[in-house]
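Quick one: structure tokens for this chain, please?
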Amino acid sequence: MRARAPIATLALGVVLAVGTVLAVGGCASVPPTSSPDPQLVGTWHLVLATDHGTTVATGAEDITLTIGDSKHTGGASPCSHYRASITGGLGAIFIDASFVGRNIQCNDPALAKVDNQYVDALAAATVATIDDGVLVLSSPHSSLVYLKPTLSSIGTLQNTRWALVQPPDLRASTAVSLTFGNVNELTITTSCTSTVAHYLLVEDIIILRGVATMPIGTRRCTPADQVAQAILTGQLTADVSSATIAGPATLILTNRANEEPLLWRAN
């Protein structure tokens, strides 16, 4: 898998490019096309949203945008589903977005706030760019950054199981295994706990969402177990991690924030 710049770096570069487009284009009107640009079509996963200089979402909220024809465009936000009408394409884009259903989770004010801010930012977008597989929808005050998973990258790790090899102190303190399921579910198992999350894999970038840790039966965690669990979940959930398959039986997971690798062997 080829090296890729961190999401924050890619997002900054693309946003700067968007600013240049806005500056050059000024107030010139670009007539919309009748359907979305083919390069935009597909399901995109939000990895970063900002509005008026503040972070709205970071990718952990499981927000999607599926762009199809005029009747099949919309997506899911933390506690809602929405529909959208998109015309234009790369460069000038025109989006009309609105909610079509909200679930009980919207009773949480924090989730409802993310929902509202995201859809407002989506509807405000006027510029679309794609750079190195990263889609950015921007307005003068907001930026939505998306990635699109590929079937080849998802299939690479589906239905595989791995045992931790390095770092040796974690391996020696507790038995640790990592399992990628067939429905984009990842499980980290130690001697006393099981952590389950949904994973999104885009080329070499892996993002975990909905992380939940549960005890295994009545087993009691030793201090070593607790330390191992904290390190593993922190390594995989902080910022964005990269996944590299080195040979047929070796998996290397590296956190982009601290560059400390976890080495796994297939079992």
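The chain has two domains: 7-147, 151-266.
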